[in-house]
Design a protein that fits this description.
The protein is mainly α. The protein has a domain of 120 residues. Helix content is 80%, strand content 2%. It is built from three helices and two strands; from the N terminus they run E-E-H-H-H. It has a two-stranded antiparallel ribbon with strand order 1-2. A hairpin with a 2-residue loop joins strand 1 and strand 2. The protein starts with 25 loop residues before the first strand and ends with a helix.
């Protein structure tokens, strides 16, 4: 085959030793660009013969299936995340409602405690007032009893003094005789 390929030497421009016109190298009458084209056709033919497109298509199908599976997983994860978000939002609303109910209950209890404290204070003041009034009344009664006792003693002493001064033994004898005589008569 070497015999069939003839090569022509290419003379450099301006080379004084070359007398031939410039030509492109060729083999079997096909230029280098033609040989590149033939080589590419052979590579494509071998690729088709070896079923490279189906292998590439299979690899691409596997890659597509993997991507679809990842998308499905991502979609599932998104749905789960949305469900969790909705669940937590509902829980947050419930907690907010519970906090509000506790606040209302605490305010109500505070009002009840305050009302009870006021009622207890009013009752305590009333009891203390009643006890104070009773002590005052008792003290008044004791003072009045003491004053009456002193007045009775003073009256008795004054009566004794008056009787002793106006009545003598003779007047007493006449009064006793008169009383005894009055006892003997029927009423």
């Amino acid at each position: 085959m070497v015999e069939m390929i003839t090569m022509m030497t290419v003379a450099a421009p301006g080379d004084p030793t070359s007398s031939e016109a410039e030509h492109e190298p060729s083999a079997l009458g096909i230029s280098a660009g033609g040989w590149v084209a033939i080589a590419m056709l052979v590579v494509f033919a071998l690729a088709l013969f070896a079923k490279v497109p189906s292998i590439v298509a299979g690899m691409l199908d596997k890659k597509i299936a993997g991507i679809r599976e990842q998308l499905a997983n991502a979609e599932q994860l998104r749905k789960e995340a949305e469900a969790l978000k909705a669940d937590y939002e509902a829980k947050a609303r419930d907690v907010h409602k519970e906090v509000e109910a506790l606040r209302v209950s605490a305010e109500r209890q505070a009002v009840e405690i305050l009302d009870k404290a006021k009622a207890d204070a009013t009752a305590l003041i009333a009891r203390h007032s009643a006890m104070a009034e009773e002590k005052i009344a008792s003290a008044e009664r004791a003072v009045l009893a003491e004053i009456r006792g002193k007045a009775a003693d003073a009256a008795a002493q004054a009566a004794r003094a008056l009787i002793a001064e106006k009545h003598g033994a003779a007047a007493d004898k006449a009064l006793i005789d008169k009383t005894i005589a009055g006892l003997g008569r029927p009423n």
